[in-house]
Specification:
This protein has 369 residues and is α+β, with helices and mostly antiparallel strands. It is 40% helix and 27% strand. The protein has 2 domains: 189 residues, Aminopeptidase; 147 residues, Aminopeptidase (3-Layer(aba) Sandwich), CATH 3.40.630. Strands 1, 2, 3, 4, 5, 6, 7, 8, 9, 10, 11, 12, 13 and 14 form a 14-stranded mixed sheet that branches.
Length: 369
């Protein structure tokens, strides 16, 4: 039996559901509201992503806002101890927020009270989220690549912006073919061995750079596999693989809707690093995605030299937390905000950020011994 809970928001009835309790009509309305809002069709804000997270994260919930019995908004979240909330899939989700019909206004703290949340943390809040934007503490750039006019048009812009980038990457691809073996690319591969290799490469990269290994967390590994099996056109996993001599040398697992591809987990075999297989993969993937109807590739927030080379513009995303004046909110603030403030301090000072990155790499190197 569904474990539906009801709450009240001024002028609205709020139903609290588990993600798998969303009906087909709910999911249809969710997508219609996203379309009406004019927001990008980012797969992380599709109901299929929330449903997949719900299968691996038991504390996942969705607040359904109703007006006269009809859904006018959806707010996906996860609930922790003392009601401490977080964006659905926090840590791997690249676009977060509520899905509200245009014209619907809610107060963030009142919404949290309806959900029995003392706080709600976000790190990739999409632009236009008026209820939560006042609670942001940092604005971040999220580079995107526009390929809606076709790959050739994009390649022309890339050549004009960085004449040597494309030429050098194509030269490395030819060298890879000469020195290793025939180069082959699969845009939407169904290759479990390649996916396993990708996870191993990415885990090694996390450890090498002193960062938390996402694939050491079972729920993330399960989530990736679930989404890789999805057939939902608005949210499904796409595994792209670059082969040399029939061996995977670079791969990327991302999420796509009909028009947006989210850059998610890229990695490559370091034995082939001199050929820049990751960049070769990216260019081939952009070409294939454009041919497949993708208009935008969202590279996600976080600095990286290759993103600056490839991007056509930046979106804005936000990091922060909504805190209610209740004990659980105070616990969240004391436990997380000092560390968050320290990260902002370092990130906003390039020399200090570089030193911190080198220190993390040294920690990773020592761990690997």
């Amino acid at each position: 039996m569904p474990m539906t809970q009801e709450a009240e928001l001024p002028g609205k009835r709020v139903l609290i559901l588990k993600p798998d309790e969303l009906s087909p009509t709910d999911q249809k309305m969710w997508r219609e509201i996203r379309t009406e809002s004019g927001a990008p069709a980012n797969p992380f804000l599709d109901p299929a992503f929330t449903t997949a997270v719900g299968r691996v994260r038991p504390a996942a919930r969705v607040a359904v806002l109703q007006d006269d019995g009809s859904p006018v908004g959806f707010f996906p979240y996860e609930r922790g101890p003392l009601g401490q909330g977080r964006a659905i899939g926090l840590g791997v989700s690249d676009s977060q927020g509520a899905v509200l019909r245009p014209g619907i206004r809610v107060d963030a703290r009142r919404l949290l009270r309806s959900c029995a949340l003392s706080s709600w943390e976000f790190d990739n809040l999409e632009a236009g989220q008026g209820a939560f934007a006042p609670h942001a503490v940092e604005e971040l750039a999220s580079p995107v690549v526009d390929i809606g006019e076709g790959f050739e048009r994009y390649a022309e812009r890339l050549r004009a912006k960085s004449p040597s980038f494309l030429r050098q990457t194509l030269a490395k691809e030819r060298r890879l073919a000469r020195q290793v073996g025939e180069v082959r690319f699969a845009y939407d591969a169904r290759d479990p061995d390649a996916l396993r290799a990708l996870m191993e490469w990415k885990s090694a990269q996390y450890r090498r750079t002193g960062r938390r290994d996402r694939f050491a967390q079972e729920w993330i590994t399960r989530l990736v596999r679930l989404l890789g099996e999805s057939e939902e056109p608005e949210c499904r996993g796409v595994l792209s693989v670059l082969y040399a001599a029939d061996r995977p040398v670079a791969a990327h697992f991302g999420l796509r809707s009909r028009t947006v591809l989210s850059w998610w987990f890229p990695a490559y075999d370091r034995d082939y690093a001199k050929y820049s297989p990751g960049l070769v993969l990216q260019l081939k993937m952009l070409q294939a995605a454009a041919a497949d109807g993708v208009e935008t590739v969202d590279l996600g927030s976080g600095p990286a030299r290759y993103k600056e080379s490839l991007k056509t513009r930046d979106l804005r995303v936000y990091e922060g937390v909504v805190v209610r004046p209740v004990p659980g909110g105070a616990v969240h603030w004391l436990g997380r905000e000092p560390a968050r403030a320290a990260r902002r301090f370092v990130r906003n000072r390039p020399r200090l950020a570089g030193a911190a990155a080198r220190a993390l790499e040294e920690v990773g190197r020592l761990r690997g011994r």
